[in-house]
Amino acid sequence: MSRFEGKVALVTGASSGIGAATATLLEREGARVFTSQRGQCRHETVHADFSDPGTPERVIGELRKRTGRLDILVNNAGIMREGTVEESSEEDWQLQIQVNLTAPFLLIRHAMAMLKKTGGSIVNIGSIEGLGSNPRHPAYCASKAGLHGLTRAVAVDHGPDGVRCNAVAPGWIDTPLNEAFIDSQPEPDKFRARIEKIHPLRRTGAPEDVARLVCWLASDESGFVTGQVFTADGGRTARLSLP
């Protein structure tokens, strides 16, 4: 029997990248997968704009009507706007906090009753920028650090209910957004080589690298694991810079 046979999963932001790879792997291993995002997706979909504070309750309500249960919640949808604190508007700040932190909080809150019934697993997609920072990302870093903290809090509060909550902090992953950024550079090949060189594994990550870790955390194989943030960055943050 597949790892997720008979289970229902919700993956947000699954039109591409990590979300798409995770939804595909969950489905391949037996889960009935729902996704929620603005764009199109080949899985059963609840269309959503997570900048709207009312969206999480609507998404979970629709899922409850369609299937009546939830075993796995993957909070993957996210947004990033660049700018220092001087350059960022309050709108920039609020949007990133809303999509990256408040929406996962509300999804977890509204889904908790179903997750308690199934002994469910929550996996939040954080970032190495919740542990450190790249330049000009104050709101993004704050939102991902907050998501890591939310992960631990939910694990502590709802472990007695049989609900586990973990997070994955990816590094540089070859998503369409990152690929477009590389291609926009004056010398894309040289830039790509520099990015690969800062990783001890000498490569950047594929969405599937993260998806496999997410699925392990969602499965019964990690049944004694909760409240943890797992870094998946090819060793980037383990390596000290040279003088």
Structural description of this entry:
This protein has 243 residues and is of the alpha/beta class. It is built from seven helices and seven strands; from the N terminus they run E-H-E-E-H-E-H-E-H-E-H-H-H-E. It has helices spanning 17-28, 55-66, 90-118, 138-158, 176-183, 188-197, 207-218, and strands spanning 8-12, 32-36, 44-45, 72-75, 121-125, 164-170, 229-232. A seven-stranded parallel sheet has the order 3-2-1-4-5-6-7, sandwiched between helices. Helix 4 (138-158) links the parallel strand 5 and strand 6 (164-170). Helix 1 (17-28) packs across helix 7 and helix 2 runs parallel beside helix 3 (90-118). The longest helix has 29 residues, at 90-118. It is globular, with a radius of gyration of 18 Å. The model has no long low-confidence stretch (mean pLDDT 96).
Summarize the structure.
The protein has 243 residues and is of the alpha/beta class. 43% of the residues lie in helices and 13% in strands.
Main attributes of the structure:
single chain; 243 residues; alpha/beta; 7-stranded parallel sheet; 43% helix; globular
Strand-helix topology:
Blueprint: E1 8-12, H1 17-28, E2 32-36, E3 44-45, H2 55-66, E4 72-75, H3 90-118, E5 121-125, H4 138-158, E6 164-170, H5 176-183, H6 188-197, H7 207-218, E7 229-232
Parallel strand pairs: 1-2, 1-4, 2-3, 4-5, 5-6, 6-7
Helix pairs in contact: 1-7, 2-3, 3-4
